[in-house]
DNA sequence: GCAGAAGTGGAGAGAATTTCTCCACTACCT
DNA sequence: AGGTAGTGGAGAAATTCTCTCCACTTCTGC
């Protein structure tokens, strides 16, 4: 498991650059081929030798962790931007969710879960996303824009589901825009409309706090390719 | 590629039974571990020897095809039941989608796409699902229960997305019910509400007819594990 | 019941894939 | 310009998966 933060270390400029190239390539390859994708392929796509990859990331888990932390960083920035530029809290939520789709958050999650230890560093990165999103949601509900029974999990899990790539061949029919279309339908379902005209939500309502249960859990046996 | 329908052939009763055990096990294992899961594991879970599996299904694609056809059969029955028992067309659509989630349709699709040739047999099985679903949708729209811009793809792809399993570790937080909860939110988004109060849907609108484009396409290169 | 046909299991050889090290070479930094 | 940090890629070793072979078991028709 990589040191706390070897990303900010004292490295030669080209090494620093290569490190980021590897992370970017890893994200793409992991999304395409799953968390067990050959590391050679990642190195090739990054344009570096396999040795460079192994020097920087002693094992696969270290690389996965770096990708996860990097992605959380992007997401946190997306949340901040959404909060700042949204015309109201509903619009902010909408901006965040569409942005999260673009960041492919949901394609990264499957790696995170089960492969990365939820220690303090990961937890902090996670909350840097979760806290502003929860704040947006709470505000939107206070303004009567979002149905009051909606919870954090109803945002997070749908982003995950929508941003996971569909099977390759369906690309004949589908591009990334389809997920955005369906997200808008979902968002309309989240609106605070007449309670008589909407379905009553069944459990489980998963709150932001519930995610704390993942702390410390790690490599709990079966880790599907997925 | 297996013969047209070796499912109904003249087989000894126990062989017939084993064949179905293999298909059932394959569905479970494929869902858990992806379409490239070791065949040994499938045989083990089915409680048969690896030789039996190979005798019945000469290669992986034959097995995948059998699973796909079997699943379409279940789905078609679900659609028929929904149409028959729904209190109105919205309710029928709702029943179908929840039922399709339970059948894990979306976990099977990733195999179908890119691994199974869309020949006449597959096409017929596919339409045995698609046609009644389209009919339900059209009826619901005629009755003013579903927004008029919604199309077949808005039903099918969301079922796929919702029924794909989330990463193993999130099972600490999540059970299958969560997908049903989110489906209900989505269904509320599909309702025909005041157009001023809903988001305008962007393209692409994927119709049932668009799926014909998949005919004949097969093994188009990159087939992600997924 | 019995004979014979149909079906079965699992070990293991072979093929394919993946990991990860080593070291001669190159590029940065002061 | 010198020295240190960084690099690439071949290939040995380990791992994983496929798929056949054949002695044995179970069905089915009579």
UniProtKB/TrEMBL annotation, chains A, B:
Q: Which Pfam families match?
A: TetR_C_43, TetR_N
Q: Which residues bind DNA?
A: 38-57
Q: What SUPFAM superfamilies has UniProt attached to this entry?
A: Homeodomain-like, Tetracyclin repressor-like, C-terminal domain
Q: Which residues form the HTH tetR-type domain?
A: 16-75
What are the protein's UniProt keywords? DNA-binding, Transcription, Transcription regulation
- Protein transport in keyword set: no
The record's Gene3D superfamilies line, in alphabetical order, gives: Tetracycline Repressor, domain 2 (1.10.357.10)
Tell me the protein's name: TetR/AcrR family transcriptional regulator
Tell me which species this is from.
Yinghuangia soli
